Each structure stands twice: as structure tokens, then as C-alpha cells.
Amino acid sequence: MFDFITTDLISKFIKFCAVGFSGMGIDFGITYVCKERLKIQKFIANACGFTIAATSNFFLNRFWTFYSQNPEIFREFGDFFIISIIGLTINTLTLFLCLKKIKTNFYFSKLIAIGVTTIWNFFANYLYTFA
């Protein structure tokens, strides 16, 4: 039943999570600066943080997690970014639901949203972008 779970898959997931953790720092940092310092609306600030983190994550995942040798780096980046945009939608919807329905703290809600989005992003990139 779980034959698809291999040592390689687990290794890639751990690396993906490590890259994601660095991206989370970028995401939270950019979101904080945009929301708290620049007074940008919180969902726009969230999108800014997420987008910059996704770009950083692409390069780290390309070279470290998935060892991609694909010469079509712009196509690969486009695929990764489309998956990230879908991830942003999942992230924003989760953030919205946590804030409005569950009434949790903004940054705790953001942490939950990142966790949900990580699962989507890993499998979409593993099975499509870097397959």
C-alpha cells in the first residue's frame, strides 16, 4: 500500500522541508516588513512574502533537492511557479479560513497555511516539475 515511500522520496522530502524552512524565514520576513513596516494590506503582504520565498525555493530545490539537469530552466521555473501560484491559493484560502472561521492569530494561521501548502508543493513538484 505504501510502496511508493522510498528512501529517495523521504530524502527529497526532508531536503524540500529544509528548503521550505529557509523559505519560511524569507516569507515571514518579507510579510512582516510589508504588513507591519510598509502597512500593506495583510493578504497582499502575504502574497509578497510567499512569491519571493517561492523564487528562492525554486533555485534551492532545483540544485539541491532534486538535482535537476534540465537545460530548460525557464520552463522548469514556469512550472514551479505555476505550482507555487496554486500553492499560494491554497495558502491564502487556509489563512483566510483560519482567521475568519477558527479565529486564530495571524502568524499562527500563516504557519498552518504553510504546512498545508508544503504537502501540495512537494508532491506537485516531485511528480511534475522535477520528474
Walk me through the structure.
This protein is mostly helical. It has one domain (7-129). 83% of the residues lie in helices and 0% in strands.
Give the C-alpha Rg. 15 Å
The averaged pLDDT comes out at 92
Q: Tally the helices.
A: 4
Write the element-wise H/E pattern from the N-terminal end onward: HHHH
The major sheet is characterized as: none
Secondary structural class:
mainly alpha
User: What share of residues is helical?
Assistant: over 70%
Shape: globular
Any low-confidence stretches, pLDDT <50, length ≥5?
Answer: none
**N→C terminal distance:** 22 Å
Tally of extended strands?
Answer: 0
Proportion in β-strands: under 5%
As for the number of domains, it is 1
Quick rundown:
The protein is mainly alpha-helical and 131 residues long. It has 4 helices and no strands.
Topology readout:
Elements: H1 7-37, H2 42-65, H3 73-102, H4 106-129
Helix pairs in contact: 1-2, 1-4, 2-3, 3-4
Key phrases:
131 residues, mainly alpha, 83% helix, globular
